[in-house]
Structures are given as structure tokens and as C-alpha cells.
Amino acid sequence: MSLPDKKDNLCRCVGTRIRNVQRTALPGVIDRIINTLDDPECFAHIGDEPIHFSTSVGDMIEKLRNILFPGYFSNEKVDSVNLTYHMGQEITRLYDILSRQVIHVLRHDCLRYDRVCSECERRGNEAAFTVIEQIPVLRKKLSADVRAAYDGDPAAKSHDEIIFSYPGLYAITVHRIARILHQLDIPQLPRIMSELAHSLTGIDIHPGATIGERFVIDHGTGVVIGETSVIGDNVRIYQNVTIGALSLPRDAGEKLRWAKRHPTIEDDVIVYSGATVLGGDTVIGARSVVGGNVWLTHSIPADTKIFMEEPRLIIKSQKKETILESN
């Protein structure tokens, strides 16, 4: 069998000049695109203070993790000889990064929306100091989260494994930091932090959510926790759980923007995978268990177990069809 001639593999247009009609038409398209920048129905960010870059926010989060879990994520060995120097350097750098980031978002909103001066420099410095001042408290809360994850997960072989690799811990770490900034009324930055964690873990926690101690998200992919959710202590939720709001009419957004729209989950509750709990008036009572795939839009009292009825399984093969009834 003879091999094909190499010339057969060459483009038949080689050697001829092809006029690139599309490229020469680009100026007209560019003009039409630029004309849309003045359209009030569209969004543009022209001539305003530049919006911060998410990469710097990611660097800031890594600095915070280095301080919250000393030695775990450092590129250098941390021991008793260099501990004071190392922590001093890390905390000072974090203060500079965080204060600049907060100042930037405050200045951005002030200039873009022509607001009264918000004293960006002072508020940025104070916010950065407040976060750093809270680190001892944050370390204790996160340590309790680690222990709760270990105590309830026989697959976890050590606390280190949880700190290094569990997406739920990463998400709650970022949330506990973002929550402080949210309470300080810092715009944009807390939400960008939570969305960075969301993109890495698949866990979406709004920084406005109130979450108690010893909180565990097991596996985590697809978890959603809304802005006005209130979650008590020692709560465990599994993958693909939604703690969300009921659907609203299109014109209800502004009226309900500051209302409680998401559920309250009291202490010692377990919510299994695929469950959806909706509504600002919905309260899951303490020590209750919400089973997998449950759809819940009303409150349940303490010490309640709620499950879906077990489905009827139909198993088909070439020889016969078997129907398994639930017990």
C-alpha cells in the first residue's frame, strides 16, 4: 500500500493571497460595540476607579490561612527559633495587604457612585486591624470546626488531613473572615472572597450568613447557604444541600433585600445530602435530622426526624423484571 503524496495534505490555497474580509470589517463592529457603552440598559465601567483583582484577594486569603494555621501552608520551616520573626512578618504583611484592599474597594464605591467621603484610609486601616485582632478567636473557632469534622468522619485519619485537604474547612475558614468584613459594612470584598472559595470548593456561603461553632460541611460540593441563614452550634450538613430562599416575584427584590429570607437551623442538627430547606420563617428545631432529598418549606420542632418515603425500585434484566417494595 503506497503512502499518500505529501502534497495532498497541503492546503490547496497555499501560494494564493486570501483577502481577510472579516478582519477588514472589524472597525465597523468595534464602532457598534463602543456605541453600546452609552446605552443605559447595558453596564460599563469606564473612567472610574479600577476594580480590584481577584488574584490579590486570593493572595490575601492565603496569608490569612498561613496565620490561622501556622506552619501548615508555609514554604519554610516554622519552629521555636524563627516563630516570633515569622509570625511578625506574616501579620505585618497581611495588615498591609488587607488594609490596601479595603481602602481600594471603599474608594472605588465612593468615586463610582459619587458618595460622600467615607474616609477610606481610616476605615481601611481600622478594618484590617479588626480582622487581625480577631485572629485568636478565629483560631479557636476553626480548631473546633476541625475537631468536629474529625469526630464525625471515620474516613479522616488525622486533624492534619482535614486542615490540608477538606474543602468544607477551606470554605468555612474564608467565610469566618469574610463575615467580619461584612459586619463592618465593607462593600464587595467579602462577597468576592466567598466566591473565590465557591469556585475552589463548590461550596457557596454568603458572607452575611450567621454560623455557630463546630460547623461541618461533609464533602461539600453543591452546598448553598443564603445571606440571612442562621445556623447554630454543632451542625453538620452534607453535599448538595441548599439552605435558601423561596422564589419571589420579580418586583420583590428591593422590598425584601434586607428581610430575613433564609432558614434558621438550630443546634445539633444534621441535614443529609440533596436536602433543600427554604424560607425565612422556616426553623429546623434543635437535634433534628433532615433526610436526603427532602424538600422543606415549613418549620419542624426540636428532636424531629423527617425523611422522604422510600421509593419503589424497578430492576430490569433480559430474563425478568423485579419490583422491590419499600419496607
Structure description:
The chain has 327 residues and is of the alpha/beta class. It is 39% helix and 12% strand. The chain has 9 helices and 16 strands. The strands form 4 sheets. It has a 5-stranded parallel β-sheet. Strands 3-6-9-12-14 form a 5-stranded parallel β-sheet. A hairpin with a 4-residue loop joins strand 15 and strand 16. Helix 6 packs antiparallel against helix 8 and helix 8 runs antiparallel to helix 9. The radius of gyration is 27 Å and the shape is globular.
Show the helix and strand layout.
Blueprint: H1 21-24, H2 26-35, H3 54-68, H4 83-112, H5 120-133, H6 135-151, H7 159-165, H8 167-183, H9 189-201, E1 204-205, E2 210-211, E3 216-217, E4 224-225, E5 230-231, E6 236-237, E7 242-244, E8 264-265, E9 270-271, E10 276-278, E11 283-284, E12 289-290, E13 295-296, E14 305-306, E15 313-316, E16 321-324
Parallel strand pairs: 1-4, 2-5, 3-6, 4-7, 5-8, 6-9, 7-10, 8-11, 9-12, 10-13, 12-14
Antiparallel strand pairs: 15-16
Oligomer: single chain
Question: Beta-strand level of the residues, as a percent range?
Answer: 5-15%
Q: Give, in order, the helices and strands.
A: HHHHHHHHHEEEEEEEEEEEEEEEE
Class computed from helices, strands and strand pairing: alpha/beta
Q: Segments where pLDDT lies below 50 for 5+ residues?
A: none
Tally the helices. 9
Distance between the termini: 67 Å
The count of strands amounts to 16
Main beta sheet, described?
5 strands, parallel
Radius of gyration: 27 Å
Strand order of the largest sheet: 1-4-7-10-13
What characteristic shape results from the CA principal axes?
globular
Give the rounded overall mean pLDDT.
88
**Percent helix range:** 25-40%
